[in-house]
Amino acid sequence: MNRNLVNFKGLYGDNHQAFLSEFIHHETLEVRSKLYDWEITEHLHTDLIQIFIFSSGEGLLISEHKKIALNAPSILVIPTNTLHGFVFQSNICGDVITFTESFLENIFRNSPHILLELNHLKSFTFEPNREDFDEIQQINSQIIKEISGQNFEKQLYLQSLFQLLFLKLYRIGMQDNIQISKSDNRTLAYFQSFQKNIKKSLHESKSMHDYAKELNITAVHLNRICQTLVKKSALQIVHEYLIGEAKKYLKNTTHSIAEISYFLDFKDPAYFTRLFKKQTGFSPSEFRKK
User: Which residues contact 10 (CB under 8 A, 6 or more apart)?
Assistant: First the structure.
């Protein structure tokens, strides 16, 4: 029995294309949207991050059954493993930049707090003050030019441009938040490693002690890290990730609820159903029908 979801490793409509770790791609928003009559059905990318830069027009983002209005000028950051779809008006104009998760991780290897902040679905709006958007557009234009060119040290130059782009977005996103000090880097690194280990261990039965042991810390320390950064216990974070995976199975496969619960290493389908309803407000069968 196939325990995997539909393969979403490529760009929309190009599922079977494989990418190198330093893959970067640019296209105008209209190119792919026109092919699908301005409607992109909900999907996800397992290894790719996307930035949508909307310079004019409007549309609608659909994610996890929620609808978010997109009005230019605006920017949308979609991390890996995030369900998303669109309904665009035909007057929408902009750019889509796609790159691998490992590319971004290499750029901010020594700044885990930036990676943590950017590892969420984020929408940035820029009216009435367009100064920040105009600055980002300048960086975007340089990125597009560099991607299509064949200059010396192209990859290094692109890394610098992406670093500027994401630092700008990070600053905008953090304007109303408390800044995380550099002294917290080790805590953030532990948290990110924990998140990666959850993904790697999706079909394994692991206790919080097992996860903590992989990080060479105690379960109490791991729990404290999670509470400090996201106000949740380590177990809550594991459960949220599992429920997120369950949603993808329910939406994109015909596997039974019992099968999905076993895929995700729940020994008791009834417990899986109770946990799913507690997290989402719906039973798995209600979610699938909805």
Answer: 16, 17, 18, 19, 45
CA 87 to chain centre: 19
- Spell out the residues 6+ positions from residue 142 whose beta carbon is closer than 8 angstroms to its own: 161
Question: DSSP letters of 214-238?
Answer: HTTS-HHHHHHHHHHHHSS-HHHHH
Residues 39-59: what's their mean pLDDT? Answer: 89
pLDDT at 175 over 70: no
Q: What is the mean pLDDT of residues 159-171?
A: 92
Residue span(s) of the chain under CATH 2.60.120.280 come to: 24-174
Joined together, the tokens standing for residue 216 give 């060479």
113 vs 215: CA distance, rounded Å? 18
Q: Give 175-181's long-range contacts (Cβ < 8 A, gap of 24+).
A: 180/113, 180/116
| Parts of the chain belonging to CATH 1.10.10.60 | 185-289
Give the H/E segment covering residue 50. strand 48-56
Is 254 strand, coil or helix? coil
- Predicted TM-score (pTM) of this structure: 0.62
State residue 82 phi and psi, 5-degree precision.
-120, 115
CATH 2.60.120.280 fits 24-174, yes or no: yes
Taking domain 185-289, whether its CATH number is 2.60.410.10 is answered by: no
Contacts of 170 (CB under 8 A, 6+ apart): 114, 117, 118
